[in-house]
């Protein structure tokens, strides 16, 4: 197979009767150019079989228009939803997404290095945190880093999260108001900020209000590990009458075990509350009461923030928190009051004295 | 914030006491280099804060080591599983994944053009087919294209698929052997090769064996559309006693509607069979009998084929078909014979005369 000589931007400019800079702008996402010019350039490019060269463009503009995205744990419906929204959001701003999936348990630095070699304009980390060393390297290189649905214990890195702690507090209050007396908590990954913050809110509210601490098991945010944890919790003589599961993905696993292995009815024998409001949580079989992490607002905040950080890499660190709601469905006994309609959805708005 | 002068490969070579070409090989995925040399280079790079430049490397090697991947429809658990496996498989071969998600219903060409501008080494399309024009462009530019879980009607493009037609035939035989008499078929996207081929196998076997054609509805591979289609099918006076749903994602929607809106018991009142063997299909609540499309073998075949195509862009088109099994679970009435154990799994191996 022989390759024809590749047409250049100069060839296109000549045929379209425009300047070479107009050709360049026509193929730079977001660049300013008259629609009529853009169409003339596109037509000339089509005729000549010209393809713009993003690599050459990135050398000229010193902007790659690539954003590195680390994601994994796609078994949890929340993350596929996030990926789709993020991809659309970044594409709309003229960015491509270089996706990499760190292996669970393996240090992500070597893979991140390869992503950084592409001179990405920014990094969005949705499934890993950053080592201090790599955070320093990114800062030295002026590459903005944003954590999605997590915060960093060590170096201060900008982040977008849901209301993990407030969600945990509200769920504790909701379950106590619903008359539950033996509460359980199913933790996710112990070193994740989401699990820590949700537990802090849940256990914190219980302690402040004179209730015993919840029975506790660890489900690692995984279906199998959550199933095993549910077996341990439900086999106890002092079985909990309500379990706050660290996310919906684990809550569906607990529901499966409770029904199919222990013959329990939900919520008559056991109340379940999850976190995220995603995927199967909304199906009638699960109908999970869950604290929401609304994907589109979280992704919108992420795209806006990352674009700002690219424009101004020296801007101070920011932590955006996107508001959620405790959505009341059928998986947990309802308190006698405090559940109010919000559109077609029932939400928990506790009635407080004063 | 001031940036230090960026260390160069020459600085690293000098400090490590190796040639510049050794530095380059140390940072080229898959390149041959002694481990001891690689470590000396890595240490020198770390001390100097040197980051390899993949953009410069791609200009030298004329290989970007980026593969463009089009995916979407992540609501169906099959695709997140594919993405994770594909990302790991490509990373292991030293490739990065430039992911883009074509908007449903919109022509993907403009987005593909931007991906091609990155001089990707290959394109894997898991959620869209290629227009003839773009296929020609890719061929002219020597960019291998591979269709995943789909085939192309128009220009001949290499592909990796499951056994769509054979799966459809086996499911028809299985349901008839199980004593079902009014079969339904829930189609996916009408213009998708998967839906066409599965239906061809299903309806073809029925016709060849003297059975009436199945009742037919279209679920577009979407949860909501499949739910609506299920309502139409189940409200008929001649309601089917078994439905072959074009994939598991639609089958879970049908199960939800059948149970929670029509009060049907599965499989006593209605048998369901899906396709894919993915995610919730395996949960006890659904326990779907399903023809499998094994993700890891499909992805392994894809990664191997795409690497071959990159090495030899002139190689002839290939269509790899990965073998599946009809996995027998609880959602469909079983035939009196033909179900055999395969490891911990029951599969359908029809007993044939002769």
UniProtKB/TrEMBL annotation, chains A, B:
It comes from Falsiroseomonas tokyonensis. This is LacI family DNA-binding transcriptional regulator. Keywords: DNA-binding, Repressor. SMART domains: HTH_LACI (SM00354). Residues 7-61 form the HTH lacI-type domain. InterPro entries: HTH_LacI, LacI/GalR-like_sensor. Pfam families: LacI, Peripla_BP_3. The keyword Repressor applies. The keyword Repressor applies.
């Amino acid at each position: 197979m022989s390759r024809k000589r590749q047409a250049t931007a100069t060839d296109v400019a000549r045929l379209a009767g425009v300047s070479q800079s107009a050709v360049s702008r026509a193929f730079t996402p977001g660049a300013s150019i008259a629609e009529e010019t853009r169409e003339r350039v596109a037509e000339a490019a089509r005729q000549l079989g010209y393809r713009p060269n993003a690599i050459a463009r990135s050398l000229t503009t010193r902007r790659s228009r690539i954003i590195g995205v680390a994601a994994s744990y796609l078994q949890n419906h929340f993350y596929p939803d996030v990926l789709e929204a993020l991809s659309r959001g970044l594409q709309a701003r003229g960015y491509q997404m270089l996706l990499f999936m760190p292996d669970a348990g393996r240090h992500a630095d070597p893979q991140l290095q390869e992503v950084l070699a592409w001179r990405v304009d920014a990094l969005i980390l949705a499934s890993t945190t950053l080592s201090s060393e790599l955070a320093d390297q990114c800062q030295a290189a002026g590459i903005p880093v944003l954590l999605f649905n997590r915060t960093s214990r060590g170096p201060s890195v900008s982040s977008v999260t849901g209301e993990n702690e407030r969600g945990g507090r509200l769920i504790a209050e909701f379950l106590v108001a619903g008359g539950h007396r033996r509460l359980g908590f199913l933790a996710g990954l112990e070193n994740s900020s989401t699990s820590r913050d949700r537990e802090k809110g849940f256990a914190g509210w219980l302690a402040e209000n004179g209730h015993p601490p919840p029975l506790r098991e660890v489900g690692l945010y995984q279906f199998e590990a959550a199933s095993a944890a549910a077996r341990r919790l439900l086999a106890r003589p002092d079985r909990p009458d309500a379990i706050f599961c660290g996310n919906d993905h684990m809550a569906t696993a607990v529901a499966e075990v409770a029904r199919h292995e222990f013959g329990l009815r939900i919520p008559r024998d056991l109340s379940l509350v999850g976190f995220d409001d995603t995927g199967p949580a909304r199906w009638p079989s699960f109908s999970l009461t869950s604290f929401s992490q609304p994907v589109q607002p979280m992704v919108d905040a992420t795209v806006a923030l990352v674009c700002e950080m690219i424009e101004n890499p020296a801007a101070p660190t920011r932590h955006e928190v996107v508001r959620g709601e405790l959505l009341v469905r059928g998986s947990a006994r309802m308190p006698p009051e405090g559940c109010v309609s919000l559109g077609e959805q029932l939400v928990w708005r506790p009635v407080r004295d004063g």
